[in-house]
TrEMBL record:
One of its GO terms (molecular function) is UDP-N-acetylmuramate dehydrogenase activity. PROSITE patterns: FAD_PCMH. The gene is murB. It catalyses: UDP-N-acetyl-alpha-D-muramate + NADP(+) = UDP-N-acetyl-3-O-(1-carboxyvinyl)-alpha-D-glucosamine + NADPH + H(+). The keyword ATP-binding does not apply. Its main location: cytoplasm. Residues 12-184 form the FAD-binding PCMH-type domain. This is UDP-N-acetylenolpyruvoylglucosamine reductase. The keyword Cell inner membrane does not apply. InterPro entries: FAD-bd_PCMH, FAD-bd_PCMH-like_sf, FAD-bd_PCMH_sub1, FAD-bd_PCMH_sub2, MurB, MurB_C, MurB_C_sf, Oxid_FAD_bind_N. SUPFAM superfamilies: FAD-binding/transporter-associated domain-like, Uridine diphospho-N-Acetylenolpyruvylglucosamine reductase, MurB, C-terminal domain. Keywords: Cell cycle, Cell division, Cell shape, Cell wall biogenesis/degradation, Cytoplasm, FAD, Flavoprotein, NADP, Oxidoreductase, Peptidoglycan synthesis. The active site is at 159, 230 (proton donor), 325.
Length: 345
């Protein structure tokens, strides 16, 4: 291993790799891919590293996406933004506010690049990124060709898209994301604390300020307590399972279509008595139980072992298996997080 860096992911865990480089143009990603292929090395592309946990030293090259740039046009009903994949969500929102383009405020302070936001369909406070995605431009690293996928082809779902499938994950680079944002602004105030705002008078800046301050008060700063944000997805269960749980626990859920109910992973973890639980230097945050983080000098495997403990404890109490939202990276590349956790503890 030749390169070492603890700031590549928001877990702030030291990472070693054969090469760590930065790319600002699509051709640099092609060059890195070809170099890795010729040298029979593995390759991982990172954005902000907010949803990525390295559980082993990486036997290959890590390339950091710094491909920036935004182009804004509009028609009579919509703003059209072509956003290069290395732009961060906060950079995008700041750009939009500069030109009075509103609607993304609920996603503020999510430490994600736009490329990663499209791949994982980030969301917060009643808004999901896919609501604005018109198309994604991809670079096929194998044959150097550009391809486009429309919104329907991206097959978005909760924290997921077709871009997470092996076909696109291994051989494609997200070059840019084209967004459509309605010119007629309609604030989304579904979730607390935004539901306390007056929909008739609230301004986009007020929503932005409240989202930022709320996330700051509820979530630990990853510069002080390295973490990847929400570690587990909120589980979706059948209505029958939900009713069974309600008979035993003071639990609430969000009723979805198709006789399904979305539960709070944070509530399940906290009511399993896990808040503040540690494994070596990893801890379930005292500030928010859905956040698993690095107290100081934790390893990726410390975090993974803690996640395995959380997963098993929640299942034993509620009969629900929590699924990691975080990507797990081993020495040769991404691994199935659930299968990896089953090998621990």
């Amino acid at each position: 291993m030749t390169d070492y860096n603890r700031n590549l992911t928001t877990f702030r865990i030291p990472i070693t790799a054969k090469r760590i480089t930065t790319a600002s143009w699509p051709n640099q990603f092609l060059e890195a891919y070809q170099y890795a292929k010729e040298n029979k090395q593995n390759l991982i592309i990172l954005g902000q590293g907010s949803n990525t946990l390295f559980v082993e030293d990486f036997d290959g090259e890590i390339i950091i996406n710094q491909y920036k740039g935004i182009t804004l046009t509009c028609n009579s009903s919509e703003y059209l933004l072509k956003v290069n994949s290395g732009v961060t969500i906060d950079e995008l929102i700041a750009y939009c506010h500069r030109f009075k383009v509103y609607g993304l405020e609920n996603l503020a302070s999510i430490p994600s690049s736009v490329g990663t936001a499209a791949i994982g369909n980030i969301g917060a406070y009643g808004v999901e990124f896919e609501q604005f995605v018109d198309k994604v431009t991809l670079l096929n690293l194998e044959n150097s060709s550009y391809e486009e996928l429309t919104h329907d082809q991206l097959d978005f779902s909760y924290r997921n898209s077709i871009l997470k499938s092996p076909k696109y994950r291994n051989n494609y680079f997200v070059v840019s994301v084209t967004l459509k944002i309605p010119r007629l602004y309609k604030p989304v105030l579904t979730y607390a604390p935004l539901n306390s705002l007056d929909p008739l008078s609230v301004t986009p800046q007020e929503i932005l300020n409240l989202v930022v301050s709320t996330r700051k008060s509820k979530l630990p700063d990853y510069n002080e307590f390295g973490n990847g944000g929400s570690f587990f997805l909120n589980p979706v269960v059948s209505f029958e399972k939900y009713n069974d749980l309600k008979e035993k626990f003071d639990i609430t859920g969000i009723i979805l279509d198709n006789n399904l109910v979305k539960l709070s992973a944070a509530w399940l973890i906290e009511n399993s008595g896990l808040k503040g639980t540690t494994f070596n230097r990893a801890q379930v945050s005292l500030k928010h139980s859905l956040v698993l983080g690095n107290m100081d000098e934790a390893t990726g495997n410390d975090i993974a072992n803690l996640a395995s403990l959380v997963q098993k404890t929640v299942f034993e109490k509620f009969g629900i298996t929590l699924t990691p939202e975080i990507r797990f990276i081993a020495s040769s590349g991404e691994v199935d997080a659930n299968l990896y956790l089953k090998t621990l503890l």
